[in-house]
Amino acid sequence: MAICVVTPQSLPGSPSITVQQFNNDQNLLLGLNYDELAAVYSDGASALKAYTIIKTKVKACPAKRRVAPKQVNQNKVQISFEHTWTSSEDVISGWSHLRGIEKDVHSADTTNNVTYIVYDFATRGNVVLASLFWQKVSPKKSFDSFAKQATDILNKQLAKIG
Hints:
7-stranded antiparallel beta sheet, globular
């Protein structure tokens, strides 16, 4: 599971985990991408503990920072970018919900130099749901339409789970 600037975060305990991934196979860089992780715990207290850990990490993400370039692997380098982060909490369909919104702006030398990422975390009963919805876009693309898509998908997924 990922938390701000795609920082990996493991879940405590031994939940049963289901992962789904949806993306535009034709264009992984510019298409819409969605990952979802559902963690089912043996009891609600364990799920709440996991959600509390996630919440603490999300709230600790820096609001703004410059991310330095780094070597990803032998053949790939991540270029530097400007990162902004906001988070909010609410209740959706009876689920406690935490949302992190990340905007990463890379060099203006490229046409699609902005990446929007929506991190949604929700819990109810013994389930913790985490989803990641992202797209690389031009600077002219509005975040509002992107956020609406992320919210619509989250609502559909929560309705399926119940």
